[in-house]
Batch of 3 targets.
Target 1
Amino acid sequence: MRPKTAYEQLEWIDAYFQNALPPQERIEFEDELRTNPEFAKEVAFMQQVEDVVDDFLLAEMVSEIHAEKVQEWHAEEPRVHEAPVVPLHQPAAGRVPWWKWSAGMAAAATIAFTSYITLSPIELHDSLSQTIRGGDNSISEQPSRVCFENFYAGRSFVMTQQPEQAIPRLQQVIDCEVRPYFKDASKWYLTVAYLQADQAQQAENMYQEITKNPDFQYDINWLDKQKIRWQIRIAKWFGKSN
């Protein structure tokens, strides 16, 4: 069934693009796509946005490689001092056509959005769900206490950019007998920690595990999901993966 809120609908479309919807829900999505023209337009627009960002990132990568090669060529060439050429006639600057101005604005907006998605930090919450904090405290055995200690320590290490300390602690929490909420929260922090440690493939594997789990309990906002997804992609493109 199609989500009612705009936020949930964006999540639904994004999950479809990532092939993360369960089979039955995917059938419902495609039925909605065929029978609802307005929804089809929204999905097409989202796909265009993804394609534009993909093309921009690829162009950026090619541009950086080209710039590096040009610098290498200039470094190898002997420097020759030449007199500057002064043109006999300086053409008057013409007015920029409106369509070029519009295209420039669109490109600038795309660059700004892409820069925000790929460069801005992931939001890491300093507090847990109130329902969890005030929930069942019956789990008090020693192993669970160790798990909770590892969880809070691991989260703190992620927040302070110490992934080498965070990763083993969060991995232990996932293997612990502890409520699913803490396991799921640990998977999210572990994804960020892997990315901090330049382990892009591990980050991608964990992120895919998160997105394909329909019962995932830790709340991650849509924008942070986009940030982590694109930053993983950038890290893999530029070879930052162990």
Target 2
Amino acid sequence: MRKSFITAVAALCIAAAQAQNPKIDGIRREYAAMKADVADLQRAGAKGKWYLLTIDDNAYGRRYVGSDHYRARLNFYYELESESVIPILRFATEDVEADEQRIHREALYTDGQPVYIYEKDSDKDNVERTLFLDAGDPLQYTENNKPLTGNDATDAASVLLWQAENLMKRFEGSFGDSPEDTDLPEDDGGEVIPLGDE
């Protein structure tokens, strides 16, 4: 009787700890919906909800200096802003193979900022790291689903945030300009230069 009571209290404490932050719960729901959309996109094709930009770095496996093998595959799932056709990144995945090391990363974005970052790195004992954010402020950092705090957690969370921001920059760079640079130049009233046989 006592053992089952302790087990029940422990289960309630774990459930309460996981449900403590409604923002994290909302991010988890958004992430689950995005993963379902991505799975559906592969089935639905052109009728899917998102656009997909794929970068396959070193697709043919040429050796990098000092390395036997390197390949990276990035997938950027995005939508287009209806009025200006500016690409808006919603989700990114990155898979890296470097010799024996394997890294898998995912980042979920809302309003141009990362809100969820996941990483699993074979060189670090396959520890799964996650970071939840709200408007750039960390909400929770976990390793193998256990919330961590302190300097080590702060350092690891900073690296994850940097990775997500780096993915965003790579996405924006794929389109040539960041969204802030897409305005057309103003007409300065200068001479119109004819093109072709005009």
Target 3
Amino acid sequence: MTAKLAAAGKAPSAMKAKDPALYAVPIGSVDKADRQADHYGRDYLGAKGNFFAVSQPLQRMTSWFGEHPEG
């Protein structure tokens, strides 16, 4: 999970540079995942509830790109 979070953490700066209004939803999803990781502790993301709390916003970001292929 930490690798996915690290990879996703690089995406918002690229999305903000391209079109922050268009990418507001996925940027918000990555920001939420980061906040959840900080809240639960990045060293404890392997725990079932902690994993889900961080994974869900990242899955939302992925599904957003599936629904918006122009993005």
